[in-house]
Design brief:
Helix content is 16%, strand content 33%. It is an alpha+beta fold. Strand 2 and strand 3 form a beta hairpin. The chain is elongated and about 85 Å long. The protein starts with 5 loop residues before the first helix and ends with a strand. The relative contact order is 0.13. The chain binds manganese (II) ion (2 copies). One manganese (II) ion binds next to loops.
Length: 418
Amino acid sequence: MDPLSRRNLLAAAAAGTVMTAASAAQAASFGNPDRPPQGVTNTLSNPSSATDPGPQNPALASQFPGAFSPPATDVGDMPMFWASFNNAPRRVQNGGWARQVTQADFAISEQISGVNMRLTRGGIREMHWHQQAEWAYVTKGACRITTIDAAGRANVEDVGEGGLWYFPAGLPHSLQGIGPDGTEFILCFDDGKASEYSTLMLTEWMAHTPPEVLALNFGLPAETFARIPLDDLYIFQGAMPGPLAAEQAEAAGSVGRMPRASTFDLAGMAPSRSTKGGEARIVDSRNFPASTTIAAALVTVHPGGLREMHWHPNADEWQYYIAGEAEMTIFATGPKAVTQNFKPGDIGYVKKSLGHYVRNTGTTDLVFLEVFRAPEFQDVSLSDWLAHTPRAMVSQHLNVDAATIARFPATKPVVMPQ
Ligand code: MN
Ligand code: MN
């Protein structure tokens, strides 16, 4: 047997055997299961193997240590699962801006399309609707939303930082910044192809309807509509809205409010799971009944912590990184294992049922959203699986004794350490 094989190195380490420099380098990578060995740790005797003399942009390249110098356990290739709002072109107008990352920009993102929007105080995203459902999370400030359902029942609600809203496919709505400095939020459509720039807008329909039809439709003289905008407004600076209760009463009229709230305070809810390593807040149709097609988790991982090895059996995962620094490794058949780095404003994407974990690689809390096109959040924990399988079965796979397996986390910590 190769004296530097992984098994021998692990056995030597366990026995406290003194290792050579070369074997220590390999052991430090904790495994080189593939031949030929990959990773910088295997080039130490030939350093130019890992240098990059070619053209490069150091400012950009330095952001991706996991890609430039993958762990020795990484193998193979998989479709790019990193994207970002940081380099997405902004559509800036008087009143705010928008930028988006759709499947046209990010091929893997089949189930979710993402938008990042900012509205000034009083700034309005024009009244509109679209064929996809819309789920949003407020990262700064506060926003007032208005919407109605097919029965004409109206919701007018204010959403603060850490809150979210959900509009079912096809139901019309408006958004307005109301915080001292307006608002910023991210918005997910439940279809990767959806574009924020392909919505059905109030002004466009009005402008493209003959005046006599408008007159007949609203039962008023055609002159009523003589001053409607001929171009869409999309985002514009508006006047601050009136008191919430008054606007709610006015919108409800004699028909009333929608039976379910359109908003939910995600950051304000008690953690669904809390450990020494961090916490997770899970929101889906079970605690926010309006959200029938989107489930999500707001995850905080403290420095040194890990969003545990897991996968999601029911949907792809779209991630939005809010704070801190992360490194995610995804495992797929092949085998394939690929690592990528994430910072605030970045987007990650994991196909349904592929194994993955997310490490906090910074010195501050890592905060990110996991978003799924599904009515319920579901994940399968690797440690949970091993802890809830007969120990003899697991032992024969991993060569770990039953007493040690009994110490594996058995209650799905979500974030480690427990
Ligand atoms: Mn919308
Ligand atoms: Mn996940």
